[in-house]
């Protein structure tokens, strides 16, 4: 089975061909990071325009690199939610047109399901059920992966996501966009115990996250120091921010695993590339005797291989979309349109 995956939810235009669920034949990414760096973050209108410019050649190269043609494909998978609405619409409409012209099945994929599927590519032995921590610039979720296409979200952020907190703290410290990688690098030379930072507790659900208070505390600390003419060691502060976030997401995940009886844990999303998160999760899983699965750094960020992988499992489950498929800026993983599409088959 050959599935073409298309991803355009934020600032990467990506296409990939995956064979038999987990064998990546091609994985092409056109990144816009250098351009958005000028503005300190992603500018949605610019992102959408660049997707329009890049998507045709990216898809063509993915097919060429895979040594395959449209005729040989079984389906075309595309990210339809969540993400920047203008960016998503470029990918969705291109995929719809391509599916119609080639008479191939159109398969909708939820972006978070894609991140979860990245671990299937990296770990051939990984099978549901298991517990997955999904942490990125826009998402912080603890998910029960019940099957390849069924999920139960048991914890999520109430405000800022972990990656958003990293980036905003980094900006306040004067690091360029994207800031998370600079905090990671600076933390290696810092003291993680130099500052005491808040660790918010959430009423109503012990597995939910809140990172806005941590972000605000860091920004206020920096502003107050500047007003007093004092210098704050950004290496130390980076180490403290990273240690705090890594500890919070790890503790919540371990608590959920123990309560629900899981001994298989996965981590996914852009923040899964963070060395502090990877190290803290690894140490805790070793201590508890849990099996831990994390994608390689190349599959942590947005890419189309994960979309093609998730799309291949959706394809097997009979999940299809027609020309009425739309893009959605927000969409719950549990209530996504893919489930409704399956019910109509």
């Amino acid at each position: 089975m050959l599935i073409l995956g298309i991803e355009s939810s934020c600032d990467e235009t990506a296409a990939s061909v995956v064979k038999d669920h987990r064998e990546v034949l091609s994985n092409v990414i056109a990144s816009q990071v250098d351009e958005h760096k000028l503005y300190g973050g992603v500018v949605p209108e610019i992102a959408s325009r660049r997707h329009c410019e890049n998507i045709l050649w990216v898809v063509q190269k993915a097919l060429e690199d895979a040594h395959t043609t449209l005729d040989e494909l079984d389906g075309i998978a595309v990210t339809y939610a969540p993400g920047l609405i203008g960016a998503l619409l470029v990918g969705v409409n291109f995929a719809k047109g391509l599916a119609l012209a080639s008479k191939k099945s159109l398969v909708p994929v939820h972006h978070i399901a894609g991140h979860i599927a990245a671990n299937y590519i990296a770990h051939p032995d990984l099978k549901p059920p298991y517990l997955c921590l999904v942490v990125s610039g826009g998402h912080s979720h603890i998910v029960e992966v019940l099957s390849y296409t069924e999920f139960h979200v048991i914890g999520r952020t109430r405000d800022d996501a972990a990656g958003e907190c990293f980036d905003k703290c980094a900006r306040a410290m004067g690091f360029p966009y994207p800031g998370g990688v600079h905090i990671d690098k600076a933390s290696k030379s810092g003291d993680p115990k130099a500052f005491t930072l808040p660790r918010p507790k959430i009423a109503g659900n012990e597995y939910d996250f809140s990172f806005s208070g941590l972000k605000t505390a860091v920004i206020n600390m920096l502003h107050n120091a500047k007003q007093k003419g004092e210098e704050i060691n950004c290496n130390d502060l980076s180490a403290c921010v990273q240690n705090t976030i890594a500890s919070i997401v790890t503790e919540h995940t371990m608590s959920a695993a123990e309560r629900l009886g899981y001994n298989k844990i996965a981590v996914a999303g852009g923040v899964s590339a963070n060395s502090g998160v990877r190290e803290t999760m690894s140490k805790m899983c070793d201590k508890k005797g849990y099996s831990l699965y994390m994608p390689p750094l190349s599959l942590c960020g947005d890419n189309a291989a994960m979309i093609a992988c998730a799309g291949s499992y959706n394809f097997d489950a009979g999940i299809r979309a027609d020309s009425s498929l739309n893009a959605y800026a927000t969409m719950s993983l549990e209530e996504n349109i893919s489930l409704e599409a399956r019910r109509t088959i």
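The chain has a mean pLDDT of 94. The domain at 126-299 is CATH 3.30.420.40 (Nucleotidyltransferase; domain 5).
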